[in-house]
Write a structure and sequence with these properties.
Blueprint (H helix, E strand, L loop, with lengths): L37 H67 L6
Keywords: Membrane, Signal, Transmembrane, Transmembrane helix
Membrane topology: Single-pass membrane protein; Single-pass type I membrane protein
InterPro entries: Emp24-like, GOLD_dom, GOLD_dom_sf
Length: about 110
């Protein structure tokens, strides 16, 4: 068995982290003069299809996790923006009530 090391660099973007996901599969090469039984060929095709489905499922799980994090972050921002808008609205209402009250107040001179 051979061990490989993969090195990744994120020098171009230091603001946010990047997540890298990949799968490495070994390939069995068969000489053209070797004959493969039809059942063995079918087993290899099924194994390759199963591996492909497994890889796709893992990718979907990672993508769903990323989308969920994005949606939760967006929901949090919308919530705090709404809270800020409500506070500003109540402050404006209080100022308007105070201003109109003082506008209609009768000044009495003694």
């Amino acid at each position: 068995m051979v061990r490989y090391d993969y090195c990744f660099s994120n020098q171009m973007s230091t603001v946010v982290d990047k997540m890298v996901s990949f799968n490495v599969h070994g390939v069995i090469y068969v000489d053209e003069d070797d004959t493969i039984a039809p059942i063995e060929r079918e087993i290899r095709n099924l194994a390759q299809g199963l591996t492909s489905v497994k890889d796709e499922q893992e990718y979907i799980v990672v993508r769903e996790k990323t989308h969920r994090n994005t949606a939760e972050s967006t929901n949090s921002r919308v919530k705090w923006w709404s809270v800020l808008q409500a506070i500003v609205l109540f402050l404006v209402v209080a100022w308007q009530v105070y201003y109109l009250k003082s506008f209609f107040e009768v000044k009495r001179a003694f």
